[in-house]
Design a protein that fits this description.
With about 240 residues, this protein is mainly beta. It contains no helices and 22 strands. The two termini are about 20 Å apart.
């Protein structure tokens, strides 16, 4: 029997530090909910806005796959592997923290905020060599279809991570319908609405709502508004 969990946008954890306004779908930092630690291998889904010229100082990570998806503005990244890069809307950044890295993230702009999603996924291999990758996607390739943005293996044009997980983004016209078939039957799907209104298996979802589905082979998707935008994350349900 199919199982689901619904996380409405207004139920997320929230921290406003002035320079950082952050919403947490799952327990993070000072936000703790024992019912919302993770969804399978998906550990963190943070919806962050960073003020002009501000950012996260250098801090450590280990044994985690970290994916950053800019939504607005330019985010400057620096890390202990020597990478210095700017990611912007349309880019996907993926890091394997593995044996340990330090990195920092700053809003490159002095006059506009930057908005981005940071996603943490438990890896299927521990203590790997740390790795950084960045890809630029053609956003028109997600119009009325699901554009693959991350996979478990190195492929041209997509990010890859050490986990049997697949991430897609779609942007749909009103009343457009499609479906998604899971790559692995033991996986689940976590859907996160970026813009507009979308129904998944009949469940109505609005902007920044999250919806997890597992014990199913496929899901149906329908856009209820024009330019509805959806992030789908297929992840293992056991870690």
């Amino acid at each position: 029997m199919t199982n689901t969990v619904l996380h409405k946008a207004e139920t997320r954890g929230h921290a406003d530090h002035g320079w950082l306004n952050s919403y947490h779908t799952f327990s993070f930092a000072n936000y703790y909910d024992p019912e919302r630690i993770h969804f399978g291998a998906l550990r963190v889904l943070n919806d962050d806005t960073v003020a002009e010229g501000k950012g996260f100082g250098k801090h450590p990570h280990e044994n985690m796959e970290i994916i950053s998806i800019p939504l607005e503005g330019d985010l400057q990244h620096e890390d202990s592997m020597g990478n210095i890069a700017v990611i912007k809307k349309g880019d996907i950044q993926a890091m394997s923290a593995g044996t340990g890295i330090f990195h920092s993230e700053f809003n490159k702009s002095k006059d506009t905020p930057v908005k981005f999603l940071q996603i943490w996924i438990f890896p299927n291999k521990k203590n790997v060599q740390p790795r950084y990758s960045q890809v630029t996607l053609q956003e028109n390739e997600r119009h009325n279809k699901l554009q693959q943005i991350a996979t478990p293996k190195a492929e041209d044009g997509v990010a890859w991570i050490h986990q049997d997980a697949w991430l897609h983004i779609g942007k749909f016209d009103k009343d457009f319908s499609t479906h998604y078939t899971l790559k692995k039957k033991e996986n689940g799907i976590y859907a996160f609405v970026l813009e507009g209104g979308i129904s998944i298996d009949g469940q109505q979802l609005n902007k920044r709502d999250g919806f997890g589905i597992w014990d199913t082979g496929n899901i149906s998707i329908k856009a209820n508004t024009q330019n509805a935008e959806l992030l789908l994350m297929e992840v293992p349900m056991t870690v």
